[in-house]
Design brief:
about 575 residues, six-stranded parallel sheet, about 40% helix, alpha/beta, four-stranded mixed sheet
Length: about 575
C-alpha cells in the first residue's frame, strides 16, 4: 500500500492525477481476497473515506483481534482491489459495498464472505447513477478475475443471490423487521415463552428476503455481542421444512460465517424438535420460513401433532413466514377454525402486500389471482412488462422455455407441472425415469438425472433450478416452491379441468397422494381436502415467474378457454 500511495502521489499526467485523487481523496470501496489458486475464495468487502489509514488499521490492529483479517494478512496469495469513482459519495460507497457483498454471495467461487455489516442507503442526490457506476466497477473487476466476479446473469440466477440478506428492503419490510426486532427484545427481557409473530403475504411479497435479512442481523457477530441492542448471546435458529430451501439457507450461513457446518443454526423442524425437550431451557428465537409447510399431524420420525405448537414450547419467540394458500399436503392442512385461533393467539400478525416477484401490471397479477382464487378464465391483459402466453402443444411450450433459458438476456427459466404423473423418490425397477408423458411428449420429473462425481461436487449447495441440466427435467412444488424463475413454464395437468365456465379440480387425476388422501379433523372425522390443496399447488406454480408465464393445459376444455382468452386479447390489440 505504501508503494502504491507513493506512486499515486507522484503522478504526472492528468489521467494519473485524476486517478490519484479518486483513490486517495474520495471515498472508496475495496475488496480483499485469498484462495485464488484453489478457486475457493475468502473475501472481505469494505468502504472507507481514507483508504490509507483504513488499510493500516486492518494490517496492524485488526490482525490482533480478528481471525478473518489475520488469515487474509498471512495468506501469500492475498490481493486487494481498491475502487474509486468520480461519482462516489459516502452514501454511494455504502450502497456499492452492500451490492458487492450481495453479488459475491451469488459467486460459486466464494466460500466465505467475512463482512459484519450491511448498510443499504435511502435516497441521495446521485443515487440514479448507482446502477451504471456499479456495473462499470463490476465489469472492470471481471477483467482482473472472471472466476471471482462472474457475469451478471450467473449472479442473478443464483438462489443465494435471490435469498440474500443484502437486498435493499422496502419501507414495508423495514417496518416489519423493526416490529419483529422489538418483540424479540421485549420477550427476552420479560422471559416470556411461545410468543408468535406471523408474517403473512401471498407469493412474491418479499417474505423470504425479510426473513433472510432478519436472520443475518440476529446472527452476525458484532450484533450478537452488542449488549445495548438487547440481543447479546442470542440463541437463535432458522428452520424450513423444504429440502431445496434448506440447502440455500445452509449455504448462506456457511458463506457468511454464521455457522461452522451444515446443521448448525439451520435445520429442518423435526430434527430441531426431536433434539430439544420442551422442559429444557428455551432458545431465544426460532425463524421459520415456509411455515405453511410445517406438519399439523404426526409423520415418520415426528411423533407430535403440530410442529408450530411444538416450536412455541421450545422458544421464547417464533417468527413464522406463513401463507395458507401454499399448503400443498394433507399433513400441512389447517382447519378454518384453527387458522382463526392461530391468528387470534399470535403476539403480532404482520401483512406484506407489495408484489415484488412478478414485474407485471396490476391487471395481469389479478388475472392470475382470478384464475386461482375465483376459478375463472378472463381475457389475458395486454402487458408490455410481463409475458403471459398459452400454447396448444406441450412441445411448443417446452421449446419456448428452452429458448428463454438459453438467452443471455434472460435469467433462469424452467418447465414445471402439476403433480399429475407418477413419481416416487425410489428409482424404478427397470432403471427408467419417472416421466411427464402427454402423447409423444416425454420429459423426466425433477432430480433424476445422473451426474458424475465432478459434476456432483460442482453442484453441491445448488437448488434444482440452478443446475444447468434441470432444463432437461420438469420441476414441481417440491423443487420450485419458494424460488423465482425468470420465465415459468407450467403444464397444467389433467387434475385441473374446465366445466361450465369454471375451473374444476379433479383429485382422481392427481398423482399427489399427499394431497388426495383424506384428512382426519380435530373432531375425529375424515374429510377430503384435495380440491383445496390442488388449488394451492396450482397457485404455487403460477406465481414463480418474474417476467413471464407460459402455459399448456392437458384438459381440452381448459386449453381452449385459455387459448380463447389469449385470442381475445390479440384481437382487441389488433
Amino acid at each position: 500500500m505504501t508503494e502504491l500511495v507513493e506512486q499515486l502521489q507522484g503522478a504526472r499526467s492528468a489521467a494519473e492525477q485524476r486517478l490519484a485523487r479518486h483513490l486517495l481523496d474520495f471515498p472508496t470501496v475495496y475488496v480483499v481476497h485469498k484462495g485464488a489458486a484453489a478457486g475457493r475464495y475468502e473475501v472481505y468487502v469494505g468502504e472507507t473515506s481514507d483508504i490509507r489509514s483504513r488499510t493500516v488499521q486492518h494490517l496492524r490492529a485488526d490482525i490482533l483481534v480478528r481471525e478473518d483479517w489475520k488469515g487474509l494478512a498471512d495468506a501469500p496469495d492475498a490481493q486487494m482491489y481498491v475502487i474509486g469513482h468520480e461519482h462516489f459519495t459516502k452514501s454511494m460507497t455504502l450502497d456499492v459495498e452492500n451490492r458487492l457483498m450481495h453479488w459475491l454471495k451469488g459467486s460459486d467461487a466464494v466460500v466465505r464472505l467475512h463482512n459484519r455489516k450491511h448498510n443499504p442507503q435511502n435516497d441521495y442526490y446521485s443515487r440514479d447513477l448507482l446502477d451504471e457506476t456499479f456495473r462499470d466497477a463490476w465489469n472492470q473487476l471481471r477483467g482482473h478475475d472472471r472466476h471471482l466476479f462472474p457475469t451478471e446473469k450467473i449472479v442473478r440466477e443464483s438462489a443465494l443471490f435471490k435469498a440474500s440478506p443484502f437486498h435493499k428492503l422496502t419501507q414495508q419490510q423495514l417496518a416489519a423487521k423493526a416490529r419483529i426486532h422489538d418483540a424479540i427484545v421485549e420477550a427476552r427481557a420479560s422471559r416470556a415463552m411461545g410468543q408468535l409473530i406471523l408474517v403473512e403475504g401471498s407469493a412474491g411479497t418479499g417474505k423470504t428476503v425479510l426473513l433472510s435479512s432478519l436472520f443475518y442481523d440476529l446472527f452476525m457477530e458484532d450484533v450478537a455481542r452488542d449488549v445495548m441492542s438487547g440481543l447479546d448471546d442470542l440463541d437463535a435458529w432458522l428452520l424450513v421444512n423444504h429440502d431445496q430451501q434448506l440447502t440455500v439457507y445452509e449455504q448462506i450461513a456457511l458463506k457468511l460465517g454464521l455457522a461452522r457446518r451444515a446443521g448448525d443454526r439451520v435445520s429442518k423442524p423435526t430434527r430441531f424438535i426431536n433434539g430439544r425437550d420442551e422442559d429444557a431451557d428455551p432458545v431465544d428465537v426460532v425463524l421459520v420460513d415456509e411455515a405453511h409447510l410445517l406438519w399439523t399431524q404426526g409423520k415418520q420420525s415426528y411423533r407430535g401433532t403440530n410442529q408450530l405448537a411444538d416450536l412455541r414450547r421450545r422458544a421464547r419467540v417464533v417468527v413464522a413466514i406463513f401463507d395458507p394458500q401454499q399448503m400443498v399436503a394433507t399433513n400441512q392442512y389447517w382447519e378454518p377454525d384453527q387458522l382463526r385461533e392461530l391468528r387470534d393467539g399470535a403476539t403480532q400478525v404482520i401483512e406484506l402486500d407489495e408484489q415484488m416477484r412478478m414485474t407485471s401490471s396490476e391487471a395481469t397479477y389479478l388475472w392470475v389471482r382470478h384464475l386461482v382464487d375465483d376459478r375463472r378464465v378472463d381475457e389475458i391483459p395486454d402487458d408490455p412488462d410481463y409475458d403471459v402466453k398459452v400454447f396448444d402443444d406441450p412441445h411448443a411450450l417446452y421449446a419456448a422455455i428452452r429458448a428463454k433459458a438459453a438467452d443471455e438476456e434472460h435469467g433462469l427459466s424452467r418447465l414445471t407441472a402439476t403433480f399429475d404423473w407418477e413419481f416416487v423418490e425410489k428409482r424404478r425397477v427397470d432403471g427408467k425415469t419417472w416421466d411427464v408423458v402427454i402423447d409423444t411428449f416425454r420429459v423426466p420429473w425433477n432430480l433424476q438425472l445422473d451426474y458424475d462425481a465432478a459434476e456432483r461436487r460442482d453442484l453441491r449447495g445448488r437448488s434444482w433450478a440452478e443446475r444447468p441440466r434441470s432444463i432437461d427435467e420438469v420441476g414441481s412444488t417440491f423443487t420450485v416452491q419458494g424460488f423465482d424463475l425468470d420465465y415459468a413454464g407450467v403444464i397444467i395437468g389433467p387434475s385441473v379441468t374446465y366445466r361450465d365456465g369454471q375451473i374444476v379440480f379433479d383429485p382422481s387425476a392427481s398423482a399427489n397422494r399427499n394431497a388426495t388422501k383424506r384428512r382426519t379433523l380435530a373432531n375425529g372425522t375424515k374429510v377430503a381436502v384435495a380440491e383445496h390443496l390442488l388449488r394451492n399447488e396450482l397457485n404455487v406454480l403460477l406465481t414463480r415467474g418474474v417476467r413471464g408465464l407460459y402455459l399448456y393445459a392437458v384438459d381440452r376444455e381448459l386449453r381452449e378457454a385459455l387459448l380463447g382468452a389469449q385470442r381475445s386479447s390479440t384481437c382487441r390489440l389488433s
